[in-house]
Amino acid sequence: MSDDLSGEAHETLRVTVMRQEPGQAPREETFDVPFDDRTSVLDALDWIKDHAEPSLTFRWSCRMGVCGSCGVMVNGRPVLGCETTVAGYRTSGITVGPMAHAAVQRDLAVDTDEFLAKLRGVSPWMLPPPAEPPTLTEPPTVVEPVETPGPTAVPALDVLAVHTQTPGQVEAYRGLSQCIDCMLCYAACPVLDDVAGFTGPAAIATARRWDLDSRDQGNEVRMVALAENEEGIWPCTQVGACTRACPKGVDPARAIRDAQREAMGG
Ligand code: SF4
Ligand code: FES
């Protein structure tokens, strides 16, 4: 938003913000916010904080759709505040609320711990092959003392052999790797209204991202976490709200469907 908006005659937008102190009930506060065609929801919240209500609390960092921290509900729909312009709402105004399916810490700032715990639960990193169990029938190996080699004698890790991928191998997971953990799909998911323990679209999409990576060997570990848990992949009914909400073009609904099929042996 242009810095000069507050000093000139501009259109104003009705912005209602859901506010909440810890331990108290939510309440609405409404502000008339000047805007132009470039004004984002995040700009509008900044204007309120700078000109009307300094205590208004909300998260942001990059202002460019990268960090994933500015998610809010606008008229009931999860969006990135920094990437959503308000001009299209000039007649209806907007109601800005905290992300669904997360506890409110204050105003629009929500607790992300549960979301991140579910993400960690699918081991969202590159895993080595499962360790072979030790063979107990073999006699113990006698280790002969050897002369300690100098640093130059250590064989160099063949980095290229370990990490090289063909364009096709990268393409297999590239779309899913665009996730910025913004939680928009998690807020949009209707299953979480009823099954609070559901792993959720972002974590499952991230699990698939690694499963589809030719360098990763963790598919078995992740499938145990997702398929042998009734709240893992099974509650999803393929409504597709997650995919429609995603600002990065990730397709969590397809990732979940693929995981369900794989778990059923398909
Ligand atoms: S899948 Fe999309 S909507 Fe969900 S957390 Fe990742 S970037 Fe956000
Ligand atoms: S502020 Fe970083 S994604 Fe919006």
UniProtKB/TrEMBL annotation:
Its cofactor is [2Fe-2S] cluster; [3Fe-4S] cluster; [4Fe-4S] cluster. It comes from the Bacteria. Pfam families: Fer2_3, Fer4_8. It is an enzyme of class 1 (oxidoreductase). PROSITE patterns: 2FE2S_FER_1 (PS00197), 2FE2S_FER_2 (PS51085), 4FE4S_FER_1 (PS00198). Its EC number is 1.3.5.1. One of its GO terms (molecular function) is 2 iron, 2 sulfur cluster binding. InterPro entries: 2Fe-2S_ferredoxin-like_sf (IPR036010), 2Fe-2S_ferredoxin-type (IPR001041), 2Fe2S_fd_BS (IPR006058), 4Fe4S_Fe-S-bd (IPR017896), 4Fe4S_Fe_S_CS (IPR017900), Beta-grasp_dom_sf (IPR012675), Helical_ferredxn (IPR009051), SDH/FRD_Iron-Sulfur (IPR050573). Residues 13-102 form the 2Fe-2S ferredoxin-type domain. Keywords: 2Fe-2S, 3Fe-4S, 4Fe-4S, Iron, Iron-sulfur, Metal-binding, Oxidoreductase, Tricarboxylic acid cycle. Pathway: Carbohydrate metabolism; tricarboxylic acid cycle. One of its GO terms (biological process) is respiratory electron transport chain. Gene3D superfamilies: 3.10.20.30, Alpha-helical ferredoxin. PANTHER family: SUCCINATE DEHYDROGENASE [UBIQUINONE] IRON-SULFUR SUBUNIT, MITOCHONDRIAL, SUCCINATE DEHYDROGENASE IRON-SULFUR PROTEIN. Belongs to the succinate dehydrogenase/fumarate reductase iron-sulfur protein family. This is succinate dehydrogenase. It comes from Xylanimonas ulmi.
